[in-house]
Amino acid sequence: MIGLVLPRGHTFGWGVCGKYLTRELARHAPVVLFTEPFTAEQIGDELDYRFLKAVSVAPGDYLGSDQGRLPHPVLQALTDHHLAPMLPGVRGTRTVGYTFFEHSLLATHDVEQARRACDVIVAGSSWCCEVLRQHGVDNTCTILQGIDETIFNMHANDKRYFDDHFVIFSGGKFELRKGQDLVIKAFQIFHERHKDVLLVNAWFNHWSFSMQTMAASPHIICQLGTGEYCTAMNALLAANGIDLSRVITLPPKANIAMAH
């Protein structure tokens, strides 16, 4: 048995990661996913929903009142740059923390908390792993997520739409570290020179505080309006000299739909 404390969802990276990790680990050992109740709409796929439902329990139902060391290994998400365990105090015979974060400076208190909570901390990128090592965390390594080749298959790449356009796709949540400001600036210049280019962007970001980091960009005017996401993003693109007839701004979409 492996205990899993992971996010689940289909329109944000952590949720997709949690869903895949649960599914893949279940191929090797029995798993139990500690999570609050969820709906099929939150998972985005009926089969994934049924699978996750079958291996999920509410934390209180399984752990009871004495949260503590469980009689099996535990894989626990350490959320954001605070490295905070999703279920503080829950440990297993061996406790592995899994983390992604976006800050190069980590608070000493947060690092020590994570070090005490976990036997090893797995980073989702080599950059995160290096930052952890710079902060004195030696029990860390990198494990990359990879891709689902049943969805993102380079051999099934026939163009279905816009055969008469040069299409540029840009994804990732809208924030300074992802570099969409560079995409906007480059596309603004490129689309003035070439009339057949089209920008398809999937930049939806659940977290407004990280979107606001784009205000530090020296390359674009970053005036993020309120209201409906696509309208606000198109207004930002227009403010930076981009012809909106040559842009498709996608709303939040399930990961499984992105390949289309």
Written description of the protein model:
With 260 residues, the protein is an alpha/beta fold. The protein folds into 2 domains: 2-142, Rossmann fold; 166-257, no CATH class. The chain is 31% helix and 17% strand. The chain has 9 helices and 11 strands. The chain has helices at residues 13-25, 40-43, 46-55, 59-63, 108-117, 126-134, 180-193, 208-211, 229-239, and strands at 2-5, 31-34, 56-57, 74-79, 84-85, 95-99, 120-123, 140-142, 166-171, 197-202, 247-249. The strands form 2 sheets. Strands 1, 2, 3, 4, 5, 6, 7 and 8 form an 8-stranded mixed β-sheet that branches. Strand 1, helix 1 and strand 2 form a beta-alpha-beta unit. The longest helix has 14 residues, at 180-193. The mean pLDDT is 88. This is Glycosyltransferase family 4 protein. It comes from Tectimicrobiota bacterium.
